[in-house]
């Protein structure tokens, strides 16, 4: 079983056309990666790349097994079999690309459900084995393009080689030791291959012939374990003890759990029969028997419940899996630009190799016929070497020939300098990619004062990196940051990272006397003494204090400069003098 590789040892990189984003596992023979393949118009295909280790690169026997597995499995297109897409070699390293199943092995699922106290219902156990049998039946009956049976036998059906997706779908994988009627068979006759706990007795015997019914036997063991959480046979340590253990009487599932349907006792006994002739003749017959037990319960509801349980038990793993994908677009952009840069470098290298075809003939050789007439000092030259036939042209005097040759040499030098300048000038002016990240992420990005509409992590394309740029980052509750990007010749990818400080804080308002209503920026907060939280410390805030019998107290604070403690003494409202009643008009004062 491959062990998970430490994330610190892996960095996303290119492997041919594959963008390797995450190493999922590493064993003694191969590494398994989560990868993506980009296409036109933003198309991307996520898949798994199984790449053999360098130490195995020279093992022709192992390479043959890998290729045979790919050739055999690529013919199997079924919803319950993990699809193989491609087998090839990149830089001397063999690989298989195949379907990515977001989930875990059946073995890991069973162990996790037990730890979490989640029960696997009889209906769910039957449903999962039904999917397994459906995939096996397809493989067992697969024919080639001419209709000839391939006679595929998986030979290693076990919980390790069955994947359960987060939605409760079962996928059979790893046909690495599959047996077939063609030259693609990897099973070594005369050897016991497969996991001892799931091997049929005839498969362990070197004297007995066996067929696809060994897979049915293994599926029966898986069904028994799902139903009872126990092993149906005593543990075996070698071939002899394995054969003897298979002769043991299997305890009926209902004896372990009386709540199970009694019909399952006969089905399990038939699947685990010692003699292959007493078993189900094919996977379809086994599946049909299970359907009869399962029929009262709708299949869709069983899978829905199983999917919910998977997502509940593996919630942390799903979160980690999604987190691992969070920066995929960013990594893909960087790797895509790296791939483009490598392609251009290869093109320039090939162009440079083919360029001498033009310059193989020297400037002197081009004008040799003219120089044969004489020299600048009047002495004769040796008989010239035969020159290629050229269209006739007027003969020139020696002096003119020298001038022409000199002009040509100067012209070639100027052209070469111009070409070099054009090449480096093109590199200097070629647009690149600016990768902007921040801690914490989610900050809005502006480039040279213009908002980009992106938040970190952001990938800004078509940026001329030969000139200076100013990157500004702003986020809710964060202090803005500005970063200058200085030009660096030849760089096609630049990265900018900023650590943003929080702009939020708290301050306390007190009053004498206490109990005054507090408004901050027209928003009622409470009564003094009160602490106002999650306010920007780098902005000014107006505070109003209101208390009956006291004057309104208003003041403005900038917490990052004025501090975080504000105490105000309220002034009592002064009593105003009563107004005198107006004197009556039209009569003398005091007259009745």
From TrEMBL:
InterPro entries: Kinase-like_dom_sf, PEGA, Prot_kinase_dom. Transmembrane segments: none annotated. Residues 18-291 form the Protein kinase domain. It holds the Pfam family PEGA. Coiled coil: none annotated. Keywords: ATP-binding, Kinase, Nucleotide-binding, Transferase. Residues 373-394, 567-592 are annotated as: Disordered. The keyword ATP-binding applies. PANTHER family: MITOGEN-ACTIVATED PROTEIN KINASE KINASE KINASE 20-RELATED (PTHR43289), SERINE_THREONINE-PROTEIN KINASE NEKL-3 (PTHR43289:SF6). This is Protein kinase domain-containing protein. It comes from Anaeromyxobacter oryzae.
């Amino acid at each position: 079983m491959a062990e998970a590789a430490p994330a610190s040892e892996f960095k996303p990189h290119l492997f041919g056309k594959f963008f390797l984003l995450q190493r999922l596992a590493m064993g003694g023979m191969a590494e398994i990666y989560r990868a993506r393949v980009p296409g036109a118009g933003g198309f991307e295909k996520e898949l798994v790349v199984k790449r053999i280790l360098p130490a195995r690169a020279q093992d022709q026997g192992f390479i043959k097994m890998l290729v045979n597995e790919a050739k055999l499995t690529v013919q199997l297109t079924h919803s319950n079999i993990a699809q193989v897409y491609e087998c090839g070699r990149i830089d001397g390293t063999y690989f298989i690309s195949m379907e990515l199943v977001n989930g875990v092995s059946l073995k890991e699922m069973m162990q996790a459900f037990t730890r979490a106290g989640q029960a696997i219902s009889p209906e769910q156990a039957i449903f999962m084995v039904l999917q397994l049998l459906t995939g096996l039946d397809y493989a067992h009956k697969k024919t080639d393009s001419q209709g000839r049976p391939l006679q595929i036998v998986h030979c290693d059906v076990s919980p390790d080689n069955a994947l359960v997706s987060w939605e409760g779908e079962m996928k059979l994988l790893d046909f690495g030791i599959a047996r077939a009627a063609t030259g693609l068979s990897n099973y070594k006759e005369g050897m016991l291959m497969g996991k001892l706990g799931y091997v049929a007795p005839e498969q362990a015997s070197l004297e007995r012939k066996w067929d696809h019914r060994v897979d049915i036997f293994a599926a029966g063991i898986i069904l028994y374990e799902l139903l009872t959480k126990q092993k149906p046979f005593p543990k075996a340590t070698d071939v002899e003890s394995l054969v003897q253990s298979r002769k043991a009487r299997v305890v009926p599932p209902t004896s372990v759990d009386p709540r199970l349907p009694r019909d399952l006792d006969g089905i399990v006994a038939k699947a685990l029969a010692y003699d292959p002739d007493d078993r189900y003749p094919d996977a379809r017959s086994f599946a049909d028997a299970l359907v009869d037990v399962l029929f009262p319960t709708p299949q869709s509801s069983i899978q829905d419940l199983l999917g919910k349980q998977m997502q509940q038990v593996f919630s942390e793993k799903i979160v980690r899996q999604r987190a691992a994908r969070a920066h995929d677009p960013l990594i893909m952009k960087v790797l895509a630009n790296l791939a483009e840069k490598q392609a251009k470098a290869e093109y320039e290298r090939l162009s440079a190799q083919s360029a001498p075809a033009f310059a193989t003939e020297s400037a002197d050789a081009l004008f040799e016929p003219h120089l044969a007439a004489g020299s600048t000092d009047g002495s004769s030259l040796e008989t010239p070497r035969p020159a290629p036939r050229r269209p006739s042209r007027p003969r020139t005097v020696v002096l003119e020939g020298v001038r022409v040759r000199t002009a040509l040499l100067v012209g070639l030098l100027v052209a070469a300098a111009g070409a070099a300048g054009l090449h480096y000038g093109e590199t200097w002016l070629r647009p690149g990619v600016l990768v902007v990240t921040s801690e914490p992420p989610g900050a809005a990005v502006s480039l040279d004062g213009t908002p980009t509409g992106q938040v970190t992590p952001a990938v800004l394309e078509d940026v001329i990196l030969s000139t200076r740029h100013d990157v500004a980052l702003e986020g809710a509750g964060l202090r803005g940051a500005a970063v200058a990007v200085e030009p660096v010749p030849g760089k096609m990818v630049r990265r900018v990272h900023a650590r943003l400080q929080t702009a939020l804080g708290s301050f306390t308002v007190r009053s004498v006397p206490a109990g005054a209503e507090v408004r901050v920026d027209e928003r009622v907060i409470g009564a003094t003494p009160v602490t106002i939280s999650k306010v920007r410390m780098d902005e000014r805030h107006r505070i109003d204090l209101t208390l009956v019998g006291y004057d309104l107290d208003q003041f403005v604070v900038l917490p990052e400069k004025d501090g975080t403690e504000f105490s105000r003494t309220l002034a009592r409202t002064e009593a105003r003098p009563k107004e005198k009643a107006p004197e009556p008009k039209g009569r003398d004062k005091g007259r009745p």
